Amino acid sequence: MSRNLIAILRGVTPDEAVPMVEAIVNAGITRIEVPLNSPDPLVSIKRMVDAVSDRAELGAGTVLTTKDVAAVQATGATFIVSPNCDSQVIRCTKTLGMGSYPGVFSPSECFEALKCGADALKIFPASLMGPEGIKAIKAVLPAGTQVYAVGGAGPENFADWAAAGTDGYGIGSALFKPGMSVDDVATRAARIVAAYDEVHNG
User: Fold this and answer.
1) Which of the residues 81, 92, 101, 190 has the least number of beta carbons within 10 Å of its own beta carbon?
2) What is the 3 state secondary structure string of the chain?
């Protein structure tokens, strides 16, 4: 089962990368990003790709330039996440055949991202917009537009976001923070999957 969850491993190190991603994939989250402001992120992504690309999609987050997009593609990763809406980054991502998840907040940014070819919209920071804001924006977006809440969405409030029409979630500190053990992350991942399934597949 493919869930609209993206695990955000900000701060993961290359040595942690494989055991962490194995635990997360085994729990049922099969889309994982390593933000580029993590230690040696391209090394971590490449190790994850080599370990689990037959079972999961790997990507990079906090991607700000077209040069970064190309560097991420070279690892074998398949999607790009940004905190902002940069038309050049989106178009470059799509030209290279990768999935594009730009960060947006206003209706203007949402429509600009879609015009450039974004596969889904990352509402960030979702905690500031809230479910009601997403509900209002979804009402004017093209039918079928995938909207992910990132920054403020977690297992305790999936139901609120889902009721507003949210399609998926990026999960960062609720899943992983530097210094956590693999067992701790595995436990958190299982709780996130159970909450997601209860709301979206129940």
Assistant:
1) 190
2) CCCCEEEECCCCCHHHHHHHHHHHHHHCCCEEEEECCCCCHHHHHHHHHHHHCCCCEEEEECCCCHHHHHHHHCCCCCEEECCCCCHHHHHHHHHCCCEEECEECCHHHHHHHHHHCCCCEEECCHHHHHHHHHHHHHCCCCCCCCEEEECCCCCCCHHHHHHCCCCEEEECCCCCCCCCCHHHHHHHHHHHHHHHHHHHCC
